[in-house]
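stuck on this:

***
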Amino acid sequence: MNWHIKKFNELTTDELYSILRERVNVFVVEQNCPYPEIDGKDSQSYHLFVREKGKIIAYTRLLPAGISYSQASIGRVLVIEEYRNTGLGKKIMKRSIDYLHQELKENEIKIQAQEYALQFYESFGFKPVSKVYLEDDIPHVDMVWTETSR
């Protein structure tokens, strides 16, 4: 497995195409949820991804504070179907938190978690800060991680 973290302008066209393809496959096709996947935030984000045999198998988008929220954010968290339940999701989330905290010096991270994954995110120290709400007809909960919740 090859791990990468890149700013938008550092991505190759092949990497960008693969990232967008996997995001659409998971969040639009697999979840049967038509929504504007390309939202204008990618160019201001960091892109953490794992490749194996030339294919992107896991991905997160890391947004510095002030882009989606006043806090930094992790979004578009995905592991492709054949690599789920292998521990890869935990590894990429840990690396995402570590990068935002250690490299970008962010002490607070906010996410929009799908309700079914609440316990997964709680295992990293994220705490719910909202009630369950529908976002694109999928139940979500806002959650925040702080340096002290580690």
Remarks:
- The domain at 2-106 is CATH 3.40.630.30 (Aminopeptidase).
- The chain has one domain: 2-106.
